[in-house]
Prior knowledge:
single chain, 116 residues, alpha+beta, Immunoglobulin-like, four-stranded antiparallel β-sheet, three-stranded antiparallel β-sheet, 2 helices, disordered N terminus
Amino acid sequence: MLSSAVRAFSNFHFNFVEDSVRAKIDVLFHALRQDVSGAYKIAGTVSFAGIPLTPADRRVNLYSAFSGKLVAQQWSGPDGTYSFDWVRQGPWMVVAQDYTNAYNAAVADNQYGELM
């Protein structure tokens, strides 16, 4: 997969190190997205347990439930919401990590996307 993504970007020439690094990131992102692109989304809210639930901004990782491969990563918003758009139906594993290390990670396994 990566070789086809690299070929797609092989016609560009870069003058700056920054552009070169950005291009490599674009190539890797493109190769990653080829693996997961679809018409579905995985969305949810990260919150602390309690009454009422308190939203949390945390890093959320999306893994393929079949291979265990990390396919996307983002931070939930201040209201705790996240959305991985344009992915395949699934199954997926979603992991929300607490960067403060005060809480264990929250894992939602065998998640299936909603049609966009």
